[in-house]
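Input/output pair, single chain:
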Amino acid sequence: MERSQTLPKMKKSLLITTAVLVASGACLALVSFRQANVPAPMTKCHIPNDVTASIDHLAKKSAPRPEGCVFKTVYEGEGLDPSFVLQTPENVVKSEKRGLEWLVKAQANDGGFGCGSHARQDIIDPHAVSTDPATTAMVGMALMRMGNSLDKGLYADQLKEATEYILVQVEKAPKGATNITSLTGTQIQSKLGANIDVALATQFLSNLVAKIGEQHPTYLRSKRALNTCVGMIQRSQNADGSVQGDGWAGVLQSSFAASALESAKNVGAEVDEESLDLARDYQKANFDANTGSVATERAAGVTLYAVSGSTRNSAVQAREVTEVVAKAKKEGKVPKDAQVDSKTLEDAGYSPAEAEKMTTAYQVYNAAKTQAQADNVISGFGNNGGEEFLSFLQTGESLVIAKDNGWKNWYGQTTGRLVEIQNQDGSWNGHHCITSPVFCTATSLLILSVNNDIEHLLAQGAVKYRN
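Output:
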């Protein structure tokens, strides 16, 4: 009797053991299969959980870095080829470290940062100038892009203080105003436009809202402030889509306002679609894709400022055209060798008016991006001022948003230039017009670390496919 009961137990135990071995073998086979399909060496992306990862990377060569990032967007549903993401070169990491260490020391007691007045550009001590929202917004965006959040990161406290500064500026602005500050005559306002503060604050708040998420205690306050800023930009819009209060290179103010509206819309802010279209159309109209001619009357006569704005504000539509046409070819709606033109886009599903508009955006983007990277255009005013740094930033972000592989060549060339001209103390400064070391350092860091923000920038350009 005991023997008859033991045998079933032994059989049961043997079956369980066999099942475990089979399952283990299957798992190993699956792991081996997946590893065999991973490119070697695996592409690494420089997107630190906090800024300490990037700062300590050189001192600790063995420090772990994020492996093989494959991004997805809610609309596309397919992962991005890891080769789109570049590993930050070590000389750039060193440059970022020095720049960031210098920048955080420039913060004032009220949490803000300042660029100084146009009338007193000889004052370069960051603590001897008034703080302003535009400069603070640029620094805040640089801190975020360098891996800090409101809750973690080496410079989380500095970011929180800068955020509070921006929010207070927005909240105390008079109803019906077109800017968030009563301060006038700053370097940035004089050169870009009287309402540049609200444009850059809008971009900062859009980035912040996207990163903190709806459950964060600061989310609702930040979203309200963002909607207030969007209203200001739309109230200040001229009939041609530009923004009131032009400075020396007013086209840049209008360009940043347009891209700010685009970013705000992407995070659910109350953006009027007609206002956004008008803003984009103004920027595209500055460049004639057929002749290559550039309207520089409101760009201080500098081609770089105009074409970088045209590139940035046609990037989302150009990406949509590229992806929609590729999809139409795959589905057999258009021939495999079809050129991008109005007829092709109509066959792909656009109305005649939409097809013409989107074809123009596609042509402007591809022609303007080429000019924006030409050596004779990159020289800008002849040497680097804050306007040049801003133009470089617009071009680079445009290429990423458009999912344009040309961004890698741009990144190598532009970061090489910036590392070469960095000051001994870690800062950057302009040599004409916007000379502020705080503003120029923040903008330079945004350029150097643009590959930290690949996922965020790609999400801004994600194509919303139609049913």
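The chain has two domains: 1-37, 88-460. Confidence is low (pLDDT under 50) at residues 1-78.
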